[in-house]
Amino acid sequence: MADLLSRVATGRDRDAFAVLFRHFGPRLKSYMLRRGADAETAEELVQEVMLAVWAKADRYVPARGSVAAWIFTIARNRAIDRLRRQPPVRFADIDDHDGAADEPDGEARLMEGEMEMRVRGALDALPDGQRRIMGLAFLDGLTQAEIAARLALPLGTVKSRMRLAYRKLRASLAEYMEDSR
């Protein structure tokens, strides 16, 4: 790499610079993305760094470090310069915020996940006929008469299986419902 940079410094060798660009361009972009730049800003910074490499190639001193270290030092400095040019981010005082969060907090999400897991477990424990009827009623939104027609069962059978399923679900989930209050 040092010989390529030397060719850029002494003879403004475009082919040598193209090789350097192909080698360091993706690495520089990745570096900028890891430092928090968005994709567009990272691309701009890569361009700025490589222009600086082109313009300052004669200032590279091999005794001070590798070509990569020199180029990434330029990249770090350009990233810092970009941050300094950006306007400061204003944060609202937490005391000024009155609104309730739109999304549930972590504890509420955890409770919802636990509830869903328990309900699924209770549904899975139902006999197949009851589970199927409950699925048609609540997942597909069918009425008892529609379920009876779809499954070719008497309406009374659908009603009694639903009533039994409700009792079993209530019994399975009663302990959980008392704990969550």
UniProtKB/TrEMBL annotation:
GO terms for molecular function: DNA binding; sigma factor activity. PROSITE patterns: SIGMA70_ECF (PS01063). Keywords: DNA-binding, Sigma factor, Transcription, Transcription regulation. GO terms for biological process: DNA-templated transcription initiation. Pfam families: Sigma70_r2, Sigma70_r4. Residues 20-86, 122-171 form the RNA polymerase sigma-70 region domain. InterPro entries: RNA_pol_sigma-70-like, RNA_pol_sigma-70_dom, RNA_pol_sigma70_ECF_CS, RNA_pol_sigma70_r2, RNA_pol_sigma70_r4, RNA_pol_sigma_r2, RNA_pol_sigma_r3/r4-like, WH-like_DNA-bd_sf. Belongs to the sigma-70 factor family. ECF subfamily. This is RNA polymerase sigma factor.
